[in-house]
Specification:
This protein is an alpha/beta fold and 139 residues long. The chain is 27% helix and 19% strand. InterPro entries: DUF6924 (IPR053832).
Length: 139
């Protein structure tokens, strides 16, 4: 597979060639700011070279560099066909097993993991029985 570009921003990579309407809804959900003005900082990748790419293939395609993000996000078939648009979170640092999150909670994960404000285990520990993170309650 090809290499993802060098970036200090996490990627949200589409690996499902179908469900274009759901992909557009996902982009909209991720770009929407919270009521407190927070948003996710991600680069969207919709490139046929990545269609059907796996978690391991995309992890291997992420370039290693000093300012690299600690996570990568995947929009696969499950993401684009489930309520809440359950995106797969991929750990780029320690190759831990991924978990899913609802698209509206992306900024919580992206913002906190990439600046090391919170740890992977804090998010993973807040997942439900299906390993889905639904977001922390807003205070």
């Amino acid at each position: 597979m090809a290499q993802l570009p060098i970036s200090d921003t996490s990627f949200l990579v589409r690996t499902d060639a179908d469900h274009s309407d759901a992909w557009e809804r996902l982009i909209s959900a991720v770009r929407t700011e919270t009521k407190d003005g927070f948003r996710a900082y991600v680069d969207f990748v919709d490139d046929a070279r990545w269609y059907r790419g796996t978690e391991d293939q995309l992890r291997a395609a992420a370039p290693r560099h000093e300012m690299m993000p600690s996570v990568l996000f995947i929009a696969d078939d499950l993401t684009l066909t489930t309520e809440g648009l359950l995106v797969l979170v991929v750990d780029l640092d320690e190759r831990r097993t991924g978990f899913r999150y609802v698209a509206s909670a992306l900024c919580q994960i992206e913002n906190n993991l990439n600046i090391a404000n919170m740890d992977w285990e804090e998010f993973e520990g807040a997942t439900d029985a299906q390993r889905v993170f639904h977001g922390f309650p807003e205070v």
